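Let us work through a complete example step by step.
Step 1: write down the sequence.
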Amino acid sequence: MGKKKITPPANTNDPKAATEAAVSAPVVVKKAHRIERGRIYVTASYNNTVVSVTDEVGNVLSWATAGSVGFTGPKKATPFAASKIISVLAEKLKSFGMHELEVFVKGIGGGRDSAIRSLIGQGFEVSSIKDVTPVPHNGPRPAKTRRV
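Step 2: predict the structure and record it as tokens.
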């Protein structure tokens, strides 16, 4: 396998060496970029509510679910849980500077209307609301007729 390279521990008694090491270490500063327009995707099922925030291209900036906010069991699909998800996401979106949103709603759960109302209540400008719930055109083939 080969020899493993072991670096000797730094002398902790020398304060000058410690400050030089701290000064020479690169400092990584993440710049917060401003995104003024974005999209919010609300997926509301009977069991959970998931909200994702993207920029106009589709890069996910932030997301939250009812479980990540702290709800468990059947409470995750309630309108109250959806409003709490939006309030958590609103704090994250304020740091991006986002104020104009397009909303895409998918599913038939209880949190879909509450999520949109909470967005408007948080002070965001909703430019469009689209329902992207999948609807079957003809559905699956029906079951065979029963012969008695």
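Step 3: interpret the result. The chain has a mean pLDDT of 85.
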